[in-house]
Structures are given as structure tokens and as C-alpha cells.
Design a protein that fits this description.
alpha/beta, about 240 residues
């Protein structure tokens, strides 16, 4: 686990985008694992800037997003598909047919999860996965639990996660209570991982991830066992290290 501390989220975004650019340069048909939330937005902005400047060509890239809310279709303005379109996909030349996001309205959510897992495997796995971390140490929607989830699955969201996400909805009652998410095992199969954390409210989770015991009660702690993980944090998030 390689921990890097940066001045602010903009500096992190530039550094993380450079890793994605290097991945495309080395392997033009690479597979990205992508995340939503506030943490990756500066990275996505820089990725779009690199495309506009002609520095990176994403035409051969395939993407798989980590998760999606159960009950929200792709047109819903709080769906993660919509988020990705607004914050990245509309701004680069990745092909629509190469974009993959779990369906929150799949008639059989468990089958949707199984099919998604198989699709990632068929694509050859994730070359570079970007992650954020929740205040309770969750990655993707893998909440603190008694065991690490091995594969893509349906999850009941904790009150902590619901509370953190309520700012995006009209009221807390509108926040979905369930989600589809790639599992810890799926994430750990990625050949390279970059996790981004900013702000003092993430400091305790970052400390537990980096210095605490490896336990499913802090899902991100499993990254201590990954052979190629880069943790990018600002000074506030690194304050307890």
C-alpha cells in the first residue's frame, strides 16, 4: 500500500488522472473500474481536460462502474449512470457500448449481479480501479460486515451511508435503502487500485484502513493485502496517520 499525501483535491485529481492516462498509453484497450461520489470528480475533470488537449484517447477503453442504487433507472438524476454521464462520459470519447453500469431496475437484481460479475471476467478483469472511502470504511457499497463479500451483490445500506448521501436528495426519505455493488473480492482482482480520500471527516477511516487490523468491520482495510494500491489523500484526511 503506497500512501501519498497531497495539498488538496485538485492536486490529487491531476495525479490520479495521470495514472489513468498512463494506463491508456500502455494498453489502449484497457478496462477501467470507476466510482461515483465527490472524491473522483477532480480526477474525472482532469481526465476530460487531457482528452480535450489531445493527450489521451479513450476510444478503446471499456468501463465498469462499482455500483448503482436499487430502484433508480439510468435517467434518474441521482442514478450513478447519470452521474457518470454528467461528470465524465459526455466529456471524453469512450464508446457508449463500452460503458457498463449496473441496472437499478433489473427485474432480478441477483441475476443482474451475477451477469455483471461474468461480464467483468469476460472483459479480462479491471486494469485500474478508482475508489473512494466512506466514513465507516466502506468501499463501493460494501458496508462493515462480518465477512468480506466475494462478488457483485445486493446490499442493504447502513444509516451512516444513507445519512452521507441524503445531501443529494430532496429528503432523507428519498435516499434508496438498497444498492447493487461489486464485491470486495471483485475489487481485489483489479490489477491496480487508486483510492482517494479528502477532508477531516475521512481521517479516522483512512487511519483504520492503513494502520488498523484487516477486518470486514473496516472493508477498506483489505487493501493492505493488495499488491498494487495507491492511497491518495489530502493533508486533512492524512491527519491521523
Amino acid at each position: 500500500m503506497n500512501v501519498r499525501v497531497y495539498k488538496d483535491d485538485k492536486a490529487i485529481g491531476s495525479a490520479a488522472a495521470a495514472l489513468f492516462a498512463a494506463c491508456v498509453t500502455e494498453k489502449p484497450n484497457c478496462v477501467f473500474g470507476l466510482a461515483t461520489g465527490s472524491s473522483p470528480i477532480p480526477t474525472y475533470r482532469k481526465m476530460a481536460e487531457l482528452y480535450r488537449d489531445g493527450a489521451v484517447d479513450y476510444a478503446g477503453v471499456t468501463t465498469y462502474n462499482l455500483d448503482e442504487y436499487v430502484g433508480l433507472d439510468h435517467d434518474h438524476d441521482q442514478s450513478y449512470y447519470y452521474f457518470m454521464q454528467e461528470n465524465l462520459f459526455r466529456h471524453i470519447n469512450v464508446k457508449e457500448e463500452n460503458i457498463h453500469v449496473l441496472s437499478g431496475i433489473a427485474p432480478d437484481p441477483e441475476k443482474e449481479c451475477r451477469d455483471y460479475e461474468k461480464a467483468i471476467e469476460t472483459a479480462g478483469g479491471i486494469d485500474l480501479q478508482i475508489l473512494g472511502i466512506g466514513r465507516n470504511g466502506h468501499i463501493a457499497f460494501n458496508e462493515p460486515a462480518d465477512a468480506f463479500a466475494p462478488a457483485t451483490h445486493v446490499v442493504e445500506l447502513t444509516e451512516s451511508t444513507i445519512d452521507a448521501n441524503k445531501r443529494f436528495f430532496t429528503s432523507v426519505d428519498d435516499v434508496p435503502r438498497r444498492a447493487l455493488t461489486t464485491g470486495i473480492g471483485t475489487i481485489m482482482k483489479a490489477r491496480a487500485i487508486v483510492l482517494i480520500a479528502t477532508g477531516a471527516d475521512k481521517a479516522e477511516a483512512v487511519r483504520a484502513m492503513v494502520k488498523g487490523p484487516v477486518t470486514p468491520r473496516c472493508p477498506a482495510s483489505i487493501l493492505q493485502f493488495h499488491p498494487n494500491t495507491t492511497i491518495m489523500v489530502d493533508e486533512a484526511a492524512a491527519s491521523l496517520l
